[in-house]
Amino acid sequence: MKNEETWDTEDWLRSAKQILEWISAVNPDQPLMFLVRHSHRDTLQNHDEMVSGGLTELGKRMSFELGKRIARKGKMHIFTSFVPRCFETAEGIAEGFTQQGGEVIDIDPLPALVGPQIIEREVWTNLHPDGRNVTDFVNRWVDDSFGDRMEPFHQYRDRLMADTVDRILKEKEAITHVHVTHDLAMMCTKRILLNRPLVEDDREPFLGGLALTFSDSGALIFVKGEKKPYYLNNR
């Protein structure tokens, strides 16, 4: 099956398609930030695979399709978690975006996209290897259930915001920042940006995520098919 046909038929791509549709309507003269979960992978069986698992061949092909379908010209800067499936997704997006005429400045690793630091390995036993309870795990972390065994919420929040939202706010040109991450960091970021406890529906499928754009009239966030104002003083 050709990439185009697969893109049209895979149900898990619905969130990616919604975001791409919204991005296509954003003023091309505005800087834009796109936070995306990595592409298709196999089910993770244990916690070691959480940091070592890569993409399936399907995942690599759909990463390329995503990059090819980002309807913005000009420059893109990609930031990624070091986890293999995230870096492979970043490579596919870069290849697709370049093929459709865009320019990728660089692909840079970004520690904040790995997620909050786990001080004691035992904390991982509270998170299912495949992330099935990730929303509950993040809510418990925010409520300080893990104490000093995990990086405090406010500390990670400040670190993440400095490297993502604050960075795009400083841009003077219409650049696109793409941040590639995985389930845990995606949910931590949503907890920060949405400024509320997470629910199960907040979890994103592969290549799902959120986007933000900024203009003189304010900031907008697009998530789960909805566009809403984003207030920079949320944190």
Keywords:
alpha/beta; Rossmann fold; single chain; 235 residues
Question: What is the H level of CATH, i.e. the homologous superfamily?
Answer: Phosphoglycerate mutase-like
| Overall form | globular
Unreliable stretches (pLDDT < 50, length at least 5) are none
The overall average pLDDT, rounded, is 93
Q: Beta-strand level of the residues, as a percent range?
A: 15-25%
Name given to the CATH architecture: 3-Layer(aba) Sandwich
Q: Give the class-level CATH name.
A: Alpha Beta
Q: Report the sheet with the most strands, covering strand number, pairing sense and barrel closure.
A: 7 strands, mixed
Radius of gyration: 17 Å
Terminal CA distance:
46 Å
Care to describe what's here?
This protein is an alpha/beta fold. Helix content is 38%, strand content 18%. The protein has one domain: Rossmann fold. The protein is built from 9 helices and 7 strands. Strands 3-2-4-1-5-6-7 form a 7-stranded mixed beta sheet. The longest helix has 16 residues. The chain starts with a helix and ends in a 5-residue tail after the last strand. The relative contact order is 0.21. The model has no long low-confidence stretch (mean pLDDT 93).
Please sum up the structure shown:
It contains nine helices and seven strands, in the order ααβααβαβαααβαβββ. It is of the alpha/beta class.
